[in-house]
C-alpha cells in the first residue's frame, strides 16, 4: 500500500483485540467461570476481571490458589473443551472500532495488533470483523515472554510498524493494557467496552466508541506532537 504524507510522517497505531475491536469478554468470562466451577474454586466478578486483557498463565502464576496443583497444559485442554460449548455468549464485532481502523488505515497510517489471545483466535476475529488485511502484523500471546501489563508486546508492535514508541497511539479496553501502553512510552486511548471509565484513568483519553477519536489523536494523546 502506498503510504500517505501522514503515514510517512511516522505515526502508527496499535490495537488490542478483545474488548477493543470485538466484544468477546462476556464469552471469555463465562468460560473462566465454568472452569473455576469445574474445579470447585470460589470466584466473584473481581476474580474473573483479573483475566481480562491478560494471558491466563500470567494470572494463574500470580495467584496459584486459583487452580492449586493443576498444570497450565491441563487447564488449556479444559478451556478449549469449555470454549466449544454451543451455549456461550456470542462474540460481537464493534462496528465503531472497525470504522475507525478503516479510516486510520485509509490515511496511510500503519496499524498492528497486540493481543493477549492466541494467533489463531486473533486471525479469526480480525477476519470476522473484515479488517484482517489492514494489519501490518500481529503480536499474540506466544510471541512475548511477559504479557500485559508488561510493555514487551507493545514494544514488539512498534518494531513491526517501524515507528518510534513516542509516535504511536495504543487503543485498549483494560487497565492492564493501558498500563502496558504507557510503560512502552506510547499515547493511550481507553475504550469503555468492558471497564468503567474511572478504571481506565491511566489513559490519555477515554471514550465510549473509537469513532469519537480523530486522527491524529488529540493533543496529549501521544508522547510527540504531530
Provide a short characterization of the protein structure.
This protein has 226 residues and is an alpha/beta fold. 37% of the residues lie in helices and 12% in strands. The chain has a six-stranded parallel β-sheet with strand order 5-4-1-6-7-8.
Describe the structure.
The protein is an alpha/beta fold and 226 residues long. Helices cover 37% and strands 12% of the residues. The protein has nine helices and eight strands. It has helices spanning 5-8, 25-38, 45-49, 56-62, 72-83, 95-106, 119-129, 152-161, 175-183, and strands at 12-15, 22-23, 92-93, 111-114, 138-139, 168-172, 187-191, 205-207. Strand 6, helix 9 and strand 7 (187-191) form a beta-alpha-beta unit. Helix 2 (25-38) packs across helix 5. The radius of gyration is 17 Å and the shape is globular.
Which key features would you list for this structure?
globular; two-stranded antiparallel ribbon; 226 residues; six-stranded parallel β-sheet
How are the elements arranged and paired?
Elements: H1 5-8, E1 12-15, E2 22-23, H2 25-38, H3 45-49, H4 56-62, H5 72-83, E3 92-93, H6 95-106, E4 111-114, H7 119-129, E5 138-139, H8 152-161, E6 168-172, H9 175-183, E7 187-191, E8 205-207
Parallel strand pairs: 1-4, 1-6, 4-5, 6-7, 7-8
Antiparallel strand pairs: 2-3
Helix pairs in contact: 2-5
